[in-house]
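Review form for a predicted model. The reviewer records the input and the model, then writes brief findings.
Reviewer: anonymous (R2)
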Amino acid sequence: MQLTGSEIVIECLKEQGVDTVFGYPGGAILNVYDELYKHQNEIKHILTSHEQGAAHAADGYARATGKVGVCLATSGATNLVTGIATAYMDSIPIVAITCNVGVSLLGKDSFQEIDITGITLPITKHNFIVKDVNNLAATIRKAFAIAKKGRPGPVLIDIPKDVTANKAEYVKEKPVAVEPSQNICETQLDTAVEMIKEAKKPYIFVGGGAILSGASEELYTFAKKVDAPVTDSLMGKGAFPGTDPLYTGMLGMHGTKTSNYGVSECDLLIVIGARFSDRVTGNAQKFAQNAKIIQIDVDVAEMNKNVMISAGVVGDIKVVLDRLNERLEQQDHAEWVTKIQEYKEKYPLVYHKDVLSGPFVVEEIYRQTKGEAIISTEVGQHQMWAAQFYKYTKPRTFLTSGGLGTMGYGLGAALGAKSGREDKVVVNIAGDGCFRMNMNEIATAVRHNIPVIQVVINNHVLGMVRQWQNLFYGQRYSATVLNDAVDFVKLAEAMGAEGIRATTQEEFKSAFEKAMNLGRPVVIDCQIDSDDKVWPMVAPGAAISEAFDEADLKNK
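Model under review:
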């Protein structure tokens, strides 16, 4: 049948099983929005307060559900760039659909014309501009397949306005299933098995790839078979249960001393779906110096990129771990595991228990949600506390900007997560600096009645930057003090949400309990000390084995 380009866009979204999109309309994309209006019972549209919020919401939806997130924007769509880059750095499958000026007006500096495909080329897995309506359906289908296949990532489709009005033949198609390749090099598998058998002190380091491939069960089986302690990156949280005795906490700059010391002492490091970020390795030349390294990753480009490895297995992590589990006999490293358990007892995460603080807030959220919530964060001290003090036992329950470190990510992501997982309590944990960047999305939550809980760890400073200034810049607090009169409670109420202030532990307990039972958007403003710090910490340029904490500073 003959359909307009805008009708083809909607029909292709329905083909792909899209039930929710996030966006902001404008002149160039009006034809698509007019068609969306006619299908509002099939595809829900969340109108965000800012296009960046739409991109983050699509990202949060994808992380929480495992499906492809979709955002829409009109011409001049540069406000999507930060959200697309965030998804690209963390390998999140989203499809961004933008519309542009008509084909005849391209390249003429027309009103609101921008080369969005040129701008997003370095931060997309692939992008398209569709100048012929006859190519539109095939392009949309290809975009969804690319977003999901192999190492996932964002794809952008730019459609000139006249293409959305022109007609073409449309034939409905069933989406082609994107299945991971079963073709894994046998030699690589055999080498990995032999190295694991020879190891006396193995350690497993898990990244976001284990979550993206849906490999949690295979990972659990693998860890128990290898009988090795497990650490994770920020992106890997929830792939392996944070409550399991083998789990030792996060690795890297703000990782636990147990994980940092253990990885520095192990004789085999098995890296599963992680890319050796500088925040994990510290001084890369001194990282895991005593260990042989096996890296398992779907992307061959990650092999030997940041850290030289001893062996690699290229392939989908779920498939690779399944094959390794078939080949491996039960290993026994009781002495090594006991030593790491002793480290856990000797170097627990600690904080001042008598005042309202970030760690207390996170632990109380964990207690009241019974560890079953989806937690999103912004970027900074609160992000690290959320990673350290909430025990993630399932994948897709911790949504955070790991690669790009995007301040302003979390609230949009929370809206996307709650839209896709209405059965879950969704909490966004923010610092006051980050919350200022995206607090307009509280209006979105109210408009669409999305009952997210926004917790603001309010220390009246840019906390993580201040921590660096305190420790490494002679306490020169340049541009990090936010000593103004912004009242987040009044702000929440002005946007139609519930606002609650907490200055003590008891006030936060009752505030969060109320938020859990209200069933509508809530902002909790938690007043904490400006000089609370994230411990442990690894100084810039130092090895992760040189992690220090507050007690170490006092003993110097």
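Findings: The chain has a mean pLDDT of 97.
Further findings: Residues 194 and 328 are 9 Å apart (CA to CA).
Recommendation: see findings above.
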